[in-house]
Amino acid sequence: MVRIKERYLLVNLVYPPDAARISKARVPGLVAQHQPTVEKLTPQALVRAIRAEVSLLYGDYGAGALEGNLSVKYLSLATSTFILRCNRAHYQLLWSALTFMDRVPVKDGRPCIFRVVRVSGTIRKIEEVAVARARKLILAAKAEASGHPQSSLSTDILGTKDDAVLDVDNVMSDEDMEDGS
Question: What's the superkingdom here (predicted)?
């Protein structure tokens, strides 16, 4: 029996700073970038928008590649975070489509950046990373609000340390695939 290999992508919605809103509310910059998504964003609307973007970029090939196996496993409007599941062979296609998306996929959606934080072969590992990032974000926001200089936690959240880490579990090399193992 053949097991279907999948990849899970942890994605954050990052909002560009709005100078008028930040100065009026006196919100720390880190909190303003990682603000909650308050729109009526649903998993179905998110999948529909992603499929439309993939179809726009890659045509029929892209639409067919993600047709039956793209789903939202977790969506948190409070943390602006979601987890996508897709076929292992096509996760890079999905990642590139997310890179080109620039608005929350609802009517009159705000501009945002879809930032892929981590890719993994298991949902458990992605969930652990999501929880750890949420904790770090809370600690960094508290530190910034209390007036401390930018700490290493906020540097990690903003993405200067471990952004290029690609955590893929159970990866087979090309040699293993040829051997049939």
Answer: Eukaryota
